[in-house]
C-alpha cells in the first residue's frame, strides 16, 4: 500500500498512477470470494491477448458452474475456448413450464444453495423470465418452511435435532 | 366481483390428534360456506420436516386447501380462525388465479406457435427452433 500511495504523490509518475491504481482495485474486487479469485486468472490472460478479454470473463464463470476442469486446462486452448463452451439451457423452458409452483420444494431446492441462497442465473442457466418466477416461488416456499431462509443450513440443524427431544 | 383462487397452507403441531385437525378443517369449511366460497382441493400432506424451527418444532403436519371465492374478506376470516387455534403454528395464503391466468395465456401462445410452425417451416425445421431459444 505504501508504494502505491507514493506513486500519485510524485508528479512525474502521473500517467503511471492510474495504472497502478487500476491493478489493486481488480484484486480487491476479485478477493471477495474464492470463486472470484479463480476468475481473475483467466481474465488477465484474456487482457494480454487483447480482443477476447470480455469473452474470457463469462467463460471462466461458466466453467466453474459446469463440470469442466479448473483454470489450469482452461488456459491451454485459449484460441479454441469457444468450442469448449457448453451453452446452458433453461430447465423450465425445456420442460415448457409456464408456472413455477412454490409447493414443489423438490424442484425449487435444485436452484438454491445448501444454506438457502437463490443461485444466480449464470450458474444455473435459467432464463430471465423463469428466474423471476423462480425467485417468487422460492420466497413463498421459504415463508411456509418448505425451504430454509439463508442462514439455517441442514448442517447446522442436524446437531440441534438431538437436543430438541429433551425440551 | 370476479372470482379469485387462493392457496391456503397451514402447519399443525406434529403431536396434534386427528380429531383436532378435523375440527380446524370443519371450522374453515363453515367460514367458507358462510361466504359462499368453494373449497376446490383439500389435501393432507402428512408430517414433513420443516426447513427451519417454527415455535420450537422441527416437524409439522402440512394441510393444503384451495379456495375459490368472490369475497376477499374471507381470507382475513380464514387467517383469523387459523391464528386463534393453538395447534396451528404457521399458515400462508397465496393468491393463485393471476399466475394461473398467465400460465394459460402463455401455454395458449405456445400452442398457437406450434400449430403455425409445421406449415411454414417444411424446408428448414432447425432454424426456428434456434430462434425460439434465443427469444426465450
Structure in words:
The complex is a heterodimer of chains A (167) and B (136). Chain A is mostly helical and 167 residues long. Chain A is built from eleven helices and no strands. In chain A, helix 2 packs antiparallel against helix 3 (34-49). The longest helix of chain A has 16 residues, at 34-49. Chain A starts with a helix and ends with a helix. Residues 1-72 and 154-167 of chain A have low confidence and may be disordered. Chain B has helices spanning 18-35, 73-84, 97-120, 126-135, and strands at residues 4-12, 38-54, 57-69, 88-95. In chain B, helix 1 (18-35) runs antiparallel to helix 2. In chain B, 47% of the residues lie in helices and 35% in strands. In chain B, a hairpin with a 2-residue loop joins strand 2 (38-54) and strand 3 (57-69). Chain B is globular, with a radius of gyration of 22 Å. Chain B has a four-stranded antiparallel β-sheet with strand order 2-3-1-4. Chain B contains four helices and four strands. Chain B is of the alpha+beta class. Chain A binds chain B through residues 89-90, 93, 96, 98-99, 102-103, 116, 127, 129, 140, 142-149, 152, 157, 161, 164, 167, and chain B through 7, 9, 11, 50-54, 56, 58, 60, 64, 90, 92, 94, 99-100, 102-103, 106-107, 110, 133, 136.
Amino acid at each position: 500500500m505504501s508504494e502505491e500511495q507514493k506513486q500519485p504523490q510524485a508528479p512525474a509518475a502521473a500517467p503511471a498512477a492510474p495504472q497502478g491504481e487500476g491493478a489493486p482495485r481488480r484484486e480487491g474486487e476479485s478477493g471477495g470470494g474464492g470463486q472470484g479469485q479463480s476468475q481473475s486468472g483467466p481474465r488477465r490472460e484474456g487482457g494480454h491477448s487483447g480482443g477476447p478479454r470480455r469473452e474470457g470473463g463469462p467463460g471462466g464463470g461458466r466453467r466453474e458452474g459446469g463440470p469442466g476442469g479448473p483454470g489450469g486446462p482452461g488456459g491451454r486452448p485459449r484460441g479454441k475456448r469457444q468450442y469448449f463452451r457448453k451453452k446452458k439451457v433453461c430447465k423450465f423452458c425445456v420442460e415448457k413450464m409456464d408456472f413455477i409452483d412454490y409447493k414443489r420444494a423438490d424442484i425449487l431446492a435444485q436452484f438454491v444453495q445448501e444454506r438457502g441462497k437463490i443461485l444466480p442465473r449464470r450458474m444455473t442457466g435459467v432464463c430471465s423470465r423463469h428466474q423471476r418466477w423462480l425467485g417468487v416461488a422460492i420466497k413463498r416456499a421459504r415463508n411456509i418452511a418448505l425451504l430454509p431462509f439463508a442462514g439455517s443450513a441442514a448442517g447446522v440443524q442436524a446437531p440441534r435435532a438431538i437436543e430438541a427431544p429433551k425440551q | 366481483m370476479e372470482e379469485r383462487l387462493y392457496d391456503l397452507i397451514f402447519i399443525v403441531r406434529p403431536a396434534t390428534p386427528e380429531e383436532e385437525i378435523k375440527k380446524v378443517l370443519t371450522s374453515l369449511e363453515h367460514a367458507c360456506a358462510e361466504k359462499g366460497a368453494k373449497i376446490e382441493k383439500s389435501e393432507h400432506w402428512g408430517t414433513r420436516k420443516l426447513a427451519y424451527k417454527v415455535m420450537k418444532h422441527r416437524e409439522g403436519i402440512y394441510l393444503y386447501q384451495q379456495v375459490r371465492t368472490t369475497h376477499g374478506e374471507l381470507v382475513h376470516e380464514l387467517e383469523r380462525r387459523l391464528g386463534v387455534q393453538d395447534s396451528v403454528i404457521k399458515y400462508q395464503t397465496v393468491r393463485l388465479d393471476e399466475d394461473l391466468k398467465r400460465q394459460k395465456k402463455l401455454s395458449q401462445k405456445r400452442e398457437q406457435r406450434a400449430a403455425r410452425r409445421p406449415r411454414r417451416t417444411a424446408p428448414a425445421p432447425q432454424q426456428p427452433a434456434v430462434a425460439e431459444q434465443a427469444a426465450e
